[in-house]
Design brief:
The structure holds 2 protein chains of 2 kinds.
Chain A (H helix, E strand, L loop, with lengths): L1 H25 L3 H12 L1 H6 L2 H11 L5 H13 L13 H36 L4 H15 L2 H15 L15 H31 L2 H8 L4 H13 L1 H24 L5 H11 L2 H29 L7
Helix pairs in contact in A: 1-5, 1-14, 6-7, 6-9, 6-12, 6-13, 6-14, 7-9, 8-9, 9-11, 9-12, 10-11, 12-13, 12-14, 13-14
Chain B lengths: L2 H19 L1 H4 L10 H15 L4 H19 L20 E3 L2 E3 L10 H37 L1 H16 L2 H12 L3 H28 L2 H9 L3 H9 L4 H24 L11 H11 L7 H30 L1
Antiparallel strand pairs in B: 1-2
The chains are: A mainly alpha, B mainly alpha.
Amino acid sequence: MANLIARRAAQMLLIMLTVSLLLFAIFDSDQFRRKVAVAELGGFGVATLSDADYQDWLQKKGLNRPFLARYGEWLGAVVHGDLGRSLEKDIPVSTLLKESLANTAVLALFVFLIMIPVALTLGVLAGMNEGSTLDRIISFTAVMTTSIPQIATAVLLTVALSLGLGWVPTKSAMTDGWSFRELVLPLLTLLLYEVGYLTRMTRAAMSDVMGSDYIRTAILKGLPYWRVIVRHALRNALIVPVTLIFLELNGLLSQVVVIEVFFQYGGFGRMLFDAANFGDLQVLEAATLVAVCVAVLSQLLSDAAYAALNPRVRFT
Amino acid sequence: MNVRVAGLLALIWVPLVVYVMFRPFLGALGSYLLLPAIPAVILLYVTAVHRWRESWMALLGVTLVCFWLLMAVSAPFLPLPDPNKPIAPYLAPGSIRNGVEFLLGSDMRGRDVLARDLWGCQRVLVWGVTATAVAYAVGGGFGLIGGYLGGWWDEIVSFGGNVLLSFPVMVLFILVLNLFGQSGFNIIIAVTCSSAPVIMRIVRGLALDAKSRDYILAAQTRGEHPLWIILVEMLPNVRAPIIVDACLRLGYTTVAITTLTFLGLGLQPPDPDWGLMIKEAATAAMLWKYSYMLIVPALSVSSLILGFNLIADGLREMSLRD
């Protein structure tokens, strides 16, 4: 296990270095510098700017030095825990990052709290009797909810719950402090997809186990049905879904972008989108590092859960 | 995939791609290009229904997809108002103005929602399928190279894939579209950057598996060229799982294109597009009265993606049964 962690950590560092260097290189192009200038000074301001003034502006922002030098400086600062300042909002990146991550974490927490019991129950119920009416209903609903793109789910839910019934506000900007009612729409949008996905995976694993020989033996030797399910089938059937739940941590991080932009929720995805659009390199770098970290960690957690649950697997 | 199906697909695809990508150069005669594609879609549908009749999931899926295909190729011939022409804004569904009936109403600029919706599937289908095909060519190529050649090739290809995969997808899209400009062709690049690594992993795994089979060994012993072995021996044998994955990926790509257009990064106005319709309605008409402007494109894009996913599920089910 320690070996595995060390290897993954080394891999993560290598990828982080490559990705951050790539980002600096991409944002070194004149196109992106102009974009930052336009975003800060306005399109008209940049168009009327003389060349010398533009150079001055670059000098002031520190954008005219070779990107390798800036990269080295940034890397040194990051190692000391300083993520730099946001070009767009002029506040420390760490403050911005902390705030948006906290908002997304709240959203993710609710998603996981509801998704895990609901999806596992539905998936097990469907997989227990493959081909039954209940299975057909659950399976088809799950295919439906995973097929509808989140942008469409967001639209349809807004129309139904907010415009039609007026139960919840259309936007979740949380301008008057935190409120659960504003969280409902983004939460439901995420849940419809996530629950459907996990249900399908659980059903597949469960129906696989139910067809195996040892379950047939357990039923034939006269054990009560519920006991076969709980003691024999579930333990094996839930291995894959549990590992998937950890992987969803990473999936969630890129899915929230659309939802947070649509509902104007101030989370990680929205910060990422704004930063990438503005050309806010420091914020983008920090966000990407967080994303890489989450990707590698969720992979590691899922592998660890797999090893813990499945006694046949040992990592060397 | 036999010759007939491939021929039909080409007969639909080539005119549609030419029509959507190069319409300004074609002039008024352009729409006649699409005429032969209409019977081709119907023939394709009949063939698919006949072959997949045992799976109701695949049947429902192919019905949805073929419906949109038919709408895409026959949009110029349908008795619809011009999708880009403003007539009268904010008309409720079913109202008649100037002798034109607006079955699904008109949007905030006065354009017919039904016409925009039916025309909108052209862009999504053409760019979505083209982007998926390019992603498959690139990802599949690298996957076969990495899996078959192994060693350093494999290390380099896999690391490149891991780097691309570790970017959050949206950052990758925004970077590519800002770097190269926002157009359909650059959506292809963006989708390729995000899908090709995943495809590469799948194909690489399949190739690794196929490599140890006897028929590959036999070909190597005969002294065949590696390129011949990859293309002629290996590719046809790893085909089945790839087709299922391709159907799923068509769905993902459609989602990506619609989402990008909604975020204002993808295909540009004024031509109709589902993501664009949602975007415009979401900024201008967030009222229950005008919710048809939001619901129509949302349901359309959902039905197309549901179609792709049902085909993938049905195919997987059928392959498990055999």
